[in-house]
Amino acid sequence: MKINKNLFLVLLVVLSLLLSACGHAQALSPAVPSFPPLPEKTGLRIAVATDLHFNPDYRPDGTDEPVQAMYSLELADALLWDAKRQDADFILLTGDLCNGGKPHRHEGLTEKLRAAEENGLPVYVVPGNHDLAPIKQTDFAAFYADFGYDEAYSRDPASLSYCVVRDGLMLLMMDTAGYSTGAIDLPGAPGYDAENPFFTESTLRWAEEMLRKASEQKLRVLAAGHYNLLPEISSDPASTGYYLENGSRFAALLRAYHVPLYLSGHMHMRAVYQKNGLTELLTEYPLAYPTAYSVLDITDDAITYTPRRVDVESWAAESGQTDQRLLNFAQWQQDGLWQYSVENVDYMAKKNPLSARERSQAVEFFYRVMDAFWRGELANERESLVTLPGYASFFRCAEGYAYGWWLSELIDTTTPLVKGFTIPWQ
Ligand SMILES: [Fe+2]
Question: Could you give the maximum distance between any two Cα atoms of the chain, in Å?
């Protein structure tokens, strides 16, 4: 199906917001799926998380229905705890660290990152579009001095990009900008007047120099940034909010130097894209169902990606939390996914009415597609899902609504790679 890209983008945003909403308890308490365990660690293990949107100003206060985003502080703690517990050697955070670049939010997050490092989990960050303004680039580098900038093998004078060399790897951590140009104050940054995220010519030159050094020193390279490179929407200037200027030139550089993997975020949606020898992993978004992150196991031969659900309930028990939602987090989320399916079908059914039986079948269909997607099994279960009785009811009910387009796109295009993959070093 050919999909309207802007509509698709709106849907992704709507979806990420709605999936963060966990509703009231309902009659059905759906089973929480078990996620496959990580493979045995045989080499270097890297955790990757994105879009923490850390926000101490948005907290449950009893006046609103709590949503996951209100737990950004606890989920940051739980994520770092879980990554350490899974024996990650370090963690990469690919931008949108805070929900708006206010100094006290960065202070709050860096306090937690410092605790993680003291607990043996080094952290490396790059900025996303939400991380600057009011703070400026130099402030960001100062806040995160211990989380990349003061540990860099080299820093790009023109942006907040830098690279770190460790464990036989070069981590090419790219600043994809996209934040207010008023926040640009690095002395080497060219005057730039752009609303889009971008790489400048000088940043591309710096990146190529780093890739050349890595090649000379026989270092393997992993690249990371906030914005996306490979999805069709990131190379189409007509799409607002997702286009990355010079992104295709950076992707070409990665291919030329045989870098197999680029890690990104921004879309609040797990996805995997592959094009001409380069793989892009859009890392999971911890503030929505199912509160996951990416684990990369690195050996001499290959990189293996496994999605990992944060064990929030074990963290909550161990850290003495008393909030029942945190102590039973996976079930609370699963109930929220069901509630989300109910609310969307009911909303669309106001215009496209269904019988009671059709309604419950449509809800079940919606829920099972979403559940299969997040388990990574949608591609495998596609054929049986489309034979469910709720298939016809759902799409009749969704006629004229964006969710119909989106669900259809998801069913048609999701690949088995979202469940995990192994790619060889080139
Ligand atoms: Fe973003």
Answer: 68
